[in-house]
Each structure stands twice: as structure tokens, then as C-alpha cells.
Amino acid sequence: MTTETTTAIEHPAAVPAKQPHTDWVAEVKSIFWLILAVLSFHSLIAKPFYIPSESMMPGLLVGDQLVVSKFTYGWSYVSPSFHVLPFMKGRLFGKLPERGDVVIASPPSRLDEDYIKRVIGLPGDRLEVRGGTVILNGVPVKRAPVVLRPITVDADEPCTDPKYAEYRSVAADGRVTCALPVVRETLPNGRSYDTIDLGYDPSVDDYPATTIPAGHVFLMGDNRDNSADSRVAESLGGLGGPLPWENLGGRAEFISFSLDGTQHWYNPLTWFGALRGGRAGTSLHPSKTG
Hints:
This protein has helices at residues 24-44, 202-205, 269-273, and strands spanning 46-50, 64-69, 102-105, 115-121, 126-130, 133-136, 139-140, 142-143, 147-150, 168-170, 176-186, 191-196, 207-211, 216-220, 243-244, 248-258, 287-288. The relative contact order is 0.19. A hairpin with a 5-residue loop joins strand 10 (168-170) and strand 11. By secondary structure, the chain is mainly β. It starts with 23 loop residues before the first helix and ends with a strand.
């Protein structure tokens, strides 16, 4: 009688594969290069910008999200996302803006802040504001008649500023309307845009005749009686006169989307309901006549 001994041969596939070790150095390098690429794009090509104030109404509302090009005027020490470059005069591959451009700018004494304003005066211009009318090189800027225009009233634009009191009304059903006085302004190069004129305010509606120095621009907000711009001293939160052009951070191109203030960052379901219709894709380049 023969006794057979069967030996089980383990199939190689049954042997547990050795788990590869995570290469943490490679992972960190990948994240570093990704962050560097994002910051480079943000600093040199384009960046998003959120409208935090009413200074550019009626064209721009609180809650608008913009795309700002960083290369249009060349690069300066304020171009990087965190303004980390040491101060340097002028701009690399610099180009002056056009009158009417909407730009972001940093006040010389507060480089961590970004303002958004419109370019009104260029180097060599003789600029004056008299009774709310801009006078460029001795010629008043064209202004159309005042018209009342309703603005969006929502959580981000409640129209509760005391300056708007006479233009605000509440219907029986509680619906709020706010029709503000709008004036169409046309610059000497034919570019036009809407401004808000709430009446005479000597603190901003009069500005002494000033020749804009070389390498400087004069910026104003479209909401003329509610804007801290080149007409307002830096000590009062403004830009303090003509601004060095190296303090321009870029040009506003278009509205990417707009939120009305009812969204909650922790609840994505509220983001879609807060979208303002009809604003996405709106160009911020002023129209040109003539």
C-alpha cells in the first residue's frame, strides 16, 4: 500500500503584495509647485476681486465678483498677491491706463488694501472738480441730465445709508425700492459710464485745480458722494491726491458672478439661491461714443 503525501503549493498570487510606501517628499514637492503655480497666475496674469463697498455704484454692486488682469499695465511692486516685493519705482513693461479704465489700486500708506476706482486723469492733465463737475484741461467733462434709476435692493445692497434716505421707499407689502440719481459722464476720449450724484457735498464735489505729476493718475469712484478716492486725504481713508502708477494692481475686466449676501459659506446649497441673475459676464470696459 502506497501512501501519497500531498504538499500544497501556494500560488504566487495568493502572497500579499507589499504595500508601497508613500513618498512624502514627492508629495510635498507637488503641493509646493501647485501653490507656486497658483500664486504666479494670481500675481502675474489675473486674480479674482470682491466688491466690498458701494463706491462704484451703479455699475458695480457689493457682492460682485470680478476678474482683474494683472499684466495690462505691466508689473510693479504691488503686483504680487501679497505685495511682498520691496518698493521699486515705475513698472516692468509698463503701460499707462486709458481714461475710463476701472482699476484696483493700493494707497501708498496702506499697501495691504486694494481699492477699486476709475481712472479720470492722466499725467500732465490739469484736473479740477467744481460743484461735482470734473474739469479736465479747462474743459468740463460732458454730463447728461440726471435720471432716477432703481438699484437692486437686497442683503448686500440694503440702501440704508442715510445719504440715500430721500430715494428709498417701502411699499405696503414691505418691498423696498431705491431709485438713485444717475448721471452719464463722457470723458474726452469718448468713453462713457454712469455715476451717482446725490447733490452738492463740498467735501468731495470741489477739488482745487491740480496738475497731475508724471507717473501718476487721478482716480475717482462712480458713486461720487460716497467714495474715498483721489479727492480724499489718506488720513480720511482716501488715496490722497494723484496716485503713483506703480500703485495700480491691475484692470477690472468683467463680472464673473454676483451674490446678494444671503449665502452662507458653510452651506453650498445657499450659494445658488444667492446668485444675482444677469450680472455674470458683464464687461467693465466703458462704452465709447464717436
